[in-house]
Design a protein that fits this description.
The protein is of the alpha+beta class and 158 residues long. The chain is built from three helices and six strands; from the N terminus they run ααβββββαβ.
Length: 158
């Protein structure tokens, strides 16, 4: 399924307020426009709806993701291997040994040029993690998991 296949994602995002959905979908378009050859992996988890991009169908090669918190309604523009990225402006949050993210408060303040640079570096890093070239696929949208927990749990419409 290509970018246009967003039925599951729209269903998973539907309990969130309109402005949260708008941010998440705007970010989705931003990444898809830059990396149409990547694959979108969608996860409907108990604590967040998350979707990310990878040159394969494996989460270990995800280079970028968007996560929407169920209770906080925070929208994170994240990098699965963000700790490996140069971040000269120090805009990424996190101090663990892997994940880093940018908290998207509104679309107007999203640093597109800077994030485009980080995406480029993250994309190259994700390719280095591929051990078997047969794993490479292009342009799919894949729903990887659907939470057994009721989606509406913890979501409060504003």
């Amino acid at each position: 399924m290509p970018k246009e296949e967003c039925t599951d994602l729209l269903k998973f995002l539907s309990p969130f307020p309109a402005e949260v959905q708008e941010k998440a979908l705007w970010l989705r378009d931003f990444v898809w426009e830059l990396y149409p050859q990547a694959n979108e992996l969608i996860y409907d988890n108990y604590n967040a709806v998350a979707f990310g991009w990878s040159p394969t169908e494996k989460v270990g090669q995800v280079f970028c993701n968007i996560a929407v918190g169920r209770t906080s309604h925070n929208v994170q523009f994240g990098f699965y291997w963000g700790a490996l990225l140069e971040d000269p402006q120090k805009l990424l949050i996190g101090n663990g040994n892997q994940y880093r993210y940018f908290l998207v408060k509104n679309i107007a303040d999203f640093p597109k040029e800077y994030m485009t640079e980080l995406l480029s570096e993250a994309w190259l890093n994700s390719w280095k993690k591929i051990k078997d070239p047969k794993q490479i696929v292009e342009g799919k949208t894949i729903t990887k998991s659907i939470s057994a927990a009721k989606r509406e749990k913890g979501i409060k419409k504003k």
